[in-house]
Design brief:
- 40% of the residues lie in helices and 13% in strands.
- By secondary structure, it is an alpha/beta fold.
- A hairpin with a 2-residue loop joins strand 10 and strand 11.
- Bound molecules: glutamine.
């Protein structure tokens, strides 16, 4: 059997329903693709051959009994930040190199219950800190369009796996851009839902007030189908949103029912002014206007302060979240500790990589007595101003259109020695994260042979609008 590399969930669903192939054959096909591409791509940390073939056989039995749901037998992969019972969860770190969680994350549980078949866990920047996947303890990932360029990060493995046809759909997490930027770099679609839409239970924590699980696929339609089963209130996550959005159940069965018409779309001046070349975005604008939507310029005046505020807040939360890796309860433990202090110090020094240490140090500094008011408190105030900017424009427009990243995928190694330049990669994705809003990146053309992404940002809980327009 042979499938085209951009095959969609919607097409696979038809193939399974018509009996063109079985779920086991489909799983074998994608396992082969992973095996064939892994030596150059390195998109996976763990491949679960036996587990996935067993799950596929169970899916075939369900299909034969006429019990199949919309996603039964569809192959997928999880970013290695989601805990999976019986399968390694490394979070891209030496610290968790041998960690097997005793339970499934809610996201893992939900998609498994919907009949999806998980083929493995994808590569990522250590603890989701990075924009290039060069911070993984398991090696870098190649961009599917150019092997010497980065796939973006931190969900680089998921984005590259989907972009190169190793898997049709994959989960990711986005704290400041980790779904949208790699989606743009790999030429696919990626959605970060509203904060609270997808459960964080069993998702290894980086910055808890920002972390949100989401999806990569070739189309917004595919993302809608899977999101319908993945999202929803979870009593095990205290920040999970308790909402009754009937369209969520609808998209789980049918995908997006209809494309929104006559929208008013805002183009934030601050984002466009920061770009040297907006040709592809101008084309998107033209397409939207041809479809009958209206585009207007809007202002988000506090945009420039987003990056400094984000790196203070995210670092502070990371420094507290990562204090649990102390060499005592789980994770890496050093050999022959001489004292408790020595155990902490060496376990953490050996287990964490350079970028993670940088975040812990700067985050701890920002939270220290004497510096708290100057850094952390200021950053929280800026976060509120940025949130208010969005609330103001959503009184005037339905959605926002922006670039996803400053340019196409950069060359491997180009920014690795310059953390501040690396952080600037996130300048168009971080504001929506600070405000907790749903945002999506969709492909919008090429530059120098590499794909570019356009970002749509919506009001809170309006993933239906964002996905519908995309
Ligand atoms: N690149 C950003 C960072 O390093 C965002 C990461 C993310 O969204 N997980 O913090």
């Amino acid at each position: 059997m042979s499938l085209h590399p951009f095959v969609t969930v919607t097409e696979l669903r038809q193939g399974l329903a018509s009996g063109e192939y079985s779920a086991v054959e489909l799983t074998q096909y994608f396992l082969n693709e992973i095996r064939r591409q892994q030596p150059t791509s390195n998109a996976f940390i763990t491949v679960d051959e036996q587990g996935s073939l067993n799950a596929a056989a169970a899916a075939d039995a369900q299909i034969a009994e006429g019990q199949a749901g919309a996603l039964t037998g569809i192959p997928m992969a999880h970013k290695d930040v989601f805990c999976t019972n019986n399968v390694l969860t490394t979070c891209g770190s030496r610290m968790l190199e041998n960690f097997v969680a005793p339970y499934d994350a809610t996201v893992v549980h939900n998609l498994q219950s919907a009949g999806m078949v998980c083929l493995g866990k994808t590569n990522m920047d250590e603890f989701a800190m990075g924009s290039s996947n060069e911070n993984s303890a398991f090696g870098p990932v190649a961009n599917p369009w150019h092997a010497k360029h980065v796939p973006g990060g931190s969900s680089g493995g998921s984005a590259a796996a989907v972009g190169s046809g190793q898997i049709p759909v994959a989960t990711g997490t986005d704290t400041g851009g980790s779904i949208r930027q790699p989606a743009a770099f790999c030429g696919i679609t990626g959605l970060k839902p509203t904060y609270g839409r997808v459960s964080r239970y069993g998702m290894v924590a980086f910055a808890s007030s920002l972390d949100q699980g989401g999806l990569f696929a070739h189309t917004a339609q595919d993302i809608a189908l899977v999101l319908g089963s993945m999202a929803g209130f979870d009593a095990k996550d205290s920040t999970s949103a308790q909402r009754q959005d009937n369209w969520l159940e609808e998209i789980a069965q049918l995908g997006i029912p209809q494309t929104p018409t006559n929208l008013k779309i805002g183009l934030p001046a601050e984002y466009f002014q920061a770009m040297s070349d907006t040709q592809q975005l101008d084309d998107v604008r033209q397409t939207l206007e041809n479809l009958g939507h209206t585009c207007v310029e809007v202002a988000l005046p506090n945009t420039q302060m987003a990056i400094p505020a984000y790196y203070v807040v995210a670092g502070a939360e990371a420094s507290t979240n990562l204090s649990r890796y102390d060499g005592v309860r789980f994770g890496h433990r050093c050999e022959n500790p001489q004292s408790l202090e020595d155990l902490y110090q060496r376990s953490r020094s050996e287990g964490f990589g350079e970028e993670v240490k940088r975040r812990i140090l700067t985050g701890t500094y920002a939270l220290s007595v004497g510096y708290f008011d100057a850094y952390y408190l200021q950053a929280q105030k800026i976060r509120r101003l940025i949130s208010d900017d969005f609330s103001n424009v959503f009184g005037q427009v339905d959605l926002l259109l922006t670039p996803t990243a400053p340019g196409p995928a950069f060359a491997a190694g180009a920014l690795k020695q310059d953390p501040v330049a690396m952080y600037q990669q996130d300048k168009f994705t971080v504001p929506a994260s600070l405000a907790g809003l749903p945002a999506l990146s969709m492909p919008c053309g090429f530059k120098q042979g590499l794909p570019l992404g356009a970002q749509l940002i919506g009001p809170a809980y309006r993933e239906d609008l964002v996905l519908g327009l995309a």
